[in-house]
C-alpha cells in the first residue's frame, strides 16, 4: 500500500493541468445532464462507468425520442475512434501491467494518454503503480466535476447555453500546450491539414475517422524522415509511447 501512496503523491503534480480542465468540463457535463431532468447521481454514475469525455457530451443528446440504437453506436464510434490509435501505441506498455491493464484501457482519455506518453516515471516509483495513479486521479477529477455540476444545476438554476464549448476549449488548450513543447511539429501540422481537408470533403458530422486514416497514411509515408528528425533533435532521450 505504501507503494501506491508514493505513486499517487508523485503523480498528482503532473495531473494538476488535467484537474483544472476536467473539474470545469465535468461541471459543464453535470449541468447539461441535469438540464435533461436527470439527478446528479446519474451524471456521477455515467462518469464512473462510461467516462468518455466528449462521448458523454454527445450522449446527453441520445436521451430523446427518435434516436435509434444503431445511431448511438455509430456516433459514439465516430467520436471516440481516435482511442483505437491511442491504444495501439500503448499495447506493450499495458501488457506489462497485468490485471491493471483492464482499467488502464478503460481509463484512457486524451489527456491521460498525453500524460502517459510525456511523463517520465520517477526512479523511486514502480511504473505500473505510477501510471495507474495518473489514470485514477484523472477520472476522479471528472467524476467530482460531474457531481458538482449536477448538484449546482439542481439547486441554482441558470442559463447554461453554450456551456458545451468547454470540451472544445480544453482540446484547443491541450493542442497549444503540446505544440509549444514539441521539438518536431510536423505531425501536428499534418494532423491539422488532414482535419481541414476532411472537414471540407466529408463535413463536420463525419470527418473524424477519415482524418485519422489520412493522418496515419501520411505519417507512415514520412516515418523515416520523421524518425531521423526526432532522433537528431532528441539525442539521448527515449520516446515513452514507443
Could you explain the architecture of this structure?
The protein has 242 residues and is mostly helical. The protein folds into two domains: 2-166, no CATH class; 182-242, no CATH class. 74% of the residues lie in helices and 0% in strands. It is built from 13 helices and no strands. Helix 1 packs parallel to helix 9 (127-155), helix 2 (40-49) runs antiparallel to helix 9 (127-155) and helix 11 packs across helix 12. It starts with a helix and ends in a 9-residue tail after the last helix.
Annotation keywords:
242 residues; 2 domains; 13 helices; 0% strand
What topology emerges from the helices and strands here?
Elements: H1 2-35, H2 40-49, H3 54-59, H4 69-80, H5 82-89, H6 91-95, H7 100-106, H8 110-118, H9 127-155, H10 165-181, H11 186-202, H12 208-221, H13 223-233
Helix pairs in contact: 1-2, 1-9, 2-9, 8-9, 11-12
